[in-house]
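Query structure, 340 tokens:
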């Protein structure tokens, strides 16, 4: 079992005067955050973020989000073997001691009629050592039943491209991801909300790593996977206000795809307002899945097989994830658990 622990996250939010919740009333806002992640696989990620939103009219707003992921990991430097790079970076460290730095700005527009309809749309761009990502997305929410019920539909399409840092010709350098989300949210009581979510996912292109390979006594071969994958996910979420200062979030997600993967995810979160400006949160996540249909134990692999996989995500495994979070806001708390 692999255990991942997020040691500490500090989130700082600075909001311009007269700002408020975008979902209710469009307001100008500015927010920043700094997330720090580490685990027992010798991976460290430093993730600063900044978001700026500006209203253009009563019902329309534009926003820009910028994020940087600075990653340090031995597996990135070597891909598991000396002088072999992995899927996201080269073999040498960058300035400042990081092995890879990913930049990802997002531009979006938000329309809110001030009553029952809200639409968000935009585009995303990211770049790193050997990968460029581009995506378009939208999300529409309609409130019904005196705003006690909400239905939502969202979709995204990415157009990504590999640029390996080794001299290797890929079957294709493209990778595309498509996602469709349908959701229904229902307020059961003033302190209890349920949400049902269905997600359809489709991937195509070069879905393996350009670098990882499987080495046996008599042969070595690059990782190879099918060039398409489709999946479906079903999720149930619950948010319960325990008292004026404390809230609990529970979630379960089931996933299945045409590679034979079946997975179960449970998530528990607890938030507590310490003061009007400080909120403390904790999270526990458990994940388990089976093998993909085509993967075999490394010793059973032969050169004649169509697909090879060296890394964990297509094998049976389980994982636990624990997180603690402290949130500092420059405005009074909006209620227990309402942390971005």
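Result returned for the query:
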């Amino acid at each position: 079992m692999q255990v991942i622990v997020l040691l500490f996250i500090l989130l700082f939010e600075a909001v311009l005067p007269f700002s408020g919740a975008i979902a209710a009333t469009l307001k100008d806002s500015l927010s920043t955050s700094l997330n720090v992640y580490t685990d027992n696989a010798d991976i460290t990620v430093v993730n600063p973020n900044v978001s700026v939103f500006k209203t253009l009219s009563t019902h329309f707003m534009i926003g820009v989000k910028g994020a940087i992921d600075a990653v340090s990991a031995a597996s990135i430097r070597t891909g598991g073997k000396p002088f072999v790079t992995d899927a996201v970076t080269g073999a040498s460290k960058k300035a400042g001691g990081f092995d890879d730095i990913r930049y990802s700005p997002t531009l979006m527009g938000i329309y809110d009629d001030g009553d029952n309809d809200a639409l968000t749309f935009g585009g995303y761009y990211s770049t790193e050592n050997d990968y460029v990502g581009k995506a378009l997305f939208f999300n529409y929410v309609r409130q019904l039943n005196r705003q006690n019920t909400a239905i939502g539909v969202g979709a995204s399409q990415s157009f990504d491209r590999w640029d390996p840092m080794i001299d290797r010709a890929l079957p294709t350098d493209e990778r595309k991801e498509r996602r469709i989300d349908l959701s229904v949210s229902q307020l059961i009581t003033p302190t209890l909300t349920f949400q049902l979510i269905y997600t359809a996912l489709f991937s195509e292109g070069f879905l393996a790593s350009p670098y990882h390979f499987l080495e046996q006594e008599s042969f070595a071969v690059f990782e190879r996977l099918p060039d398409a994958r489709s999946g479906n996910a079903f999720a149930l979420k619950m948010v319960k206000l325990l008292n004026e200062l404390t809230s609990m979030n529970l979630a379960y997600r089931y996933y299945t795809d045409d590679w034979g993967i079946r997975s179960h995810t449970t998530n528990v979160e607890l938030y507590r307002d310490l003061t009007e400006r400080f909120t403390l949160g904790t999270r526990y996540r458990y994940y388990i899945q089976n093998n993909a249909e085509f993967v075999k134990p490394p010793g059973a692999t032969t050169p004649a097989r169509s697909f090879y996989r060296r890394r964990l995500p297509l094998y049976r495994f389980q994982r636990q994830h624990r997180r603690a979070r402290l949130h500092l806001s420059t405005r009074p708390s909006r209620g227990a658990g309402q942390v971005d």
